[in-house]
Amino acid sequence: xxxxxxxxxxxxxxxxxxxxxxxxxxxxxxxxxxxxxxxxxxxxxxxxxxxxxxxxxxxxxxxxxxxxxxxxxxxxxxxxxxxxxxxxxxxxxxxxxxxxxxxxxxxxxxxxxxxxxxxxxxxxxxxxxxxxxxxxxxxxxxxxxxxxxxxxxxxxxxxxxxxxxxxxxxxxxxxxxxxxxxxxxxxxxxxxxxxxxxxxxxxxxxxxxxxxxxxxxxxxxxxxxxxxxxxxxxxxxxxxxxxxxxxxxxxxxxxxxxxxxxxxxxxxxxxxxxxxxxxxxxx
Length: 283
Ligand code: GLN
Prior knowledge:
Layout: H1 15-26, H2 33-45, H3 49-56, H4 65-73, H5 78-82, E1 84-87, E2 90-93, H6 106-116, E3 123-127, H7 133-141, E4 146-151, H8 154-166, E5 173-177, E6 188-193, H9 206-209, H10 225-230, H11 234-237, E7 238-247, H12 253-261, E8 267-271, E9 277-282
Parallel strand pairs: 3-4, 3-6, 4-5, 6-7
Antiparallel strand pairs: 1-2, 7-9, 8-9
């Protein structure tokens, strides 16, 4: 005896069918079309991706899914649509006006962990803190540390403050508007920075170019303008035995090393998981 065919959802398509359709359409805008579709469906259902895959594939597709798909087809980053992105050990709320945390930037935290070993930094400065990415990851890594995040964007600072509060770190994290360290007086054991480093003539994926803040991406014709401003400020900001760890574009190791060496600093290079030069460690 054959079993009856499954009953279709009362209205519209099921999640499984909607996921297949979205995946096919995302092939033109994303290198991870199936993952993107699953993340958006999980968000529309108010659940996790794991729970979607294990338990909800036969649920009806919620009406909020189609608008999310349309936004992704307009190249909007997934993290701006879901409003959240995992980085290192923390989950950050993100949105337009601040750079989406990238896995590549975890190389800076790895470099800091390798540098300090069994020790821990007591004071941390994040120049260009954005939504709080590097600072809050470092504060999660070292629960005894306090930190200061600086950014020229008040939108980014508001996001960072919200993230610090949600992560229960408001007592350990301060935030100040500023143009790099122009108004910062103290010294820090660990200085982190992911400044803008894209050359103004460089082409970026539409996802980045059309949605993320230009002020967090572009830094003059060779992408080095902000390193030229930051490098001279570092020596006075570094506590005795302190370290500054800067993210770089994959072709910039030599040029940025030269800027740091000119300030009397010693520099080593660290690669990211994609094996691209990604961080300079200056002591
Ligand atoms: N890594 C980013 C990108 O290529 C750029 C980040 C930055 O300029 N700091 O999109």
